[in-house]
Amino acid sequence: MTHPDAMKLLTQKVGELGQAEVARRLGISAAAVSQIMSGKYQAAPDAILNRVIEVFGGLVVDCPVLGEIPLNQCASERKKPFAATSHQRVALWKACQKCERRN
Question: How confident is the model at residue 84 (pLDDT cuts 50, 70, 90)?
């Protein structure tokens, strides 16, 4: 999904859910959503548009540890810190460190 596609998706989701709810799900302020949509966001919106794709894109990825999972679950897993709580958690952390989606 490209960033222009992510902008369309952002606009669609704001229309469906409202600006405040979209902002909450993305973990940003409603003002930031408004600024991105109007093209007045001061910083490059790449990270936020990537988050739009993760949260609302409905994409599925093939995780070497968990199998096919939604992209938003992938994003959530790769942001978790290392924890040796289970063999699967360690394997997942190692896989996430090598993943092309890692930021």
Answer: confident
CA 54 – CA 69 distance, rounded (Å): 12
The reply to whether 38 and 8 lie within a common domain is yes
pLDDT at residue 16 greater than cutoff 80? yes
Distant-in-sequence contacts of 68-71, Cβ < 8 A, 24+ apart: none
Structural domain harbouring 91: 60-98
Is there a domain that residue 19 lies in?
A: yes
Taking CA atoms, 46 is separated from 8, 42, 43, 59, 82, in Å, by 14, 12, 9, 18, 26
Q: Is 103 contained in some domain?
A: no
The predicted-structure confidence for 21-80, as pLDDT tens digits, reads as follows: 999 999 999 999 999 999 898 887 888 998 999 899 888 889 999 999 988 888 888 888
Whether the Cβ atoms of residue 41 and residue 32 lie closer than 8 Å to each other: yes
